[in-house]
């Protein structure tokens, strides 16, 4: 729920609080308003490259992958 939505619902109960006060209080209590970073969309070129990589490494044994840092 956003700070503005919370402010509106509190206004219905005759409690008037500024949105910045709501944000500060929620941040102090560990609730942060963050949005996740957008993941880039895959192009046709990247999809083809991933498929090529997967097909090339299909028969590689498990111990090979344990030595790779992703």
TrEMBL record:
Domain Transposase Tc1-like, chain residue ranges per copy: 1-59
InterPro entries: RNaseH_sf, Transposase_Tc1-like
Domain of life: Eukaryota
GO biological process: DNA integration; DNA transposition
Entry GO MF terms: DNA binding
Protein name: Transposase Tc1-like domain-containing protein
Origin species: Anabas testudineus
């Amino acid at each position: 729920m956003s700070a503005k939505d919370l402010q509106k619902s509190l206004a219905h109960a005759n409690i008037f609080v500024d949105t910045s006060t709501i944000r500060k209080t929620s941040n102090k209590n560990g609730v942060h308003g963050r949005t996740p970073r957008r993941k880039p969309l895959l192009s046709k070129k990247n999809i083809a490259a991933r498929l090529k990589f997967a097909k090339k490494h299909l028969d590689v044994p498990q111990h090979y992958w344990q030595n790779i840092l992703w």
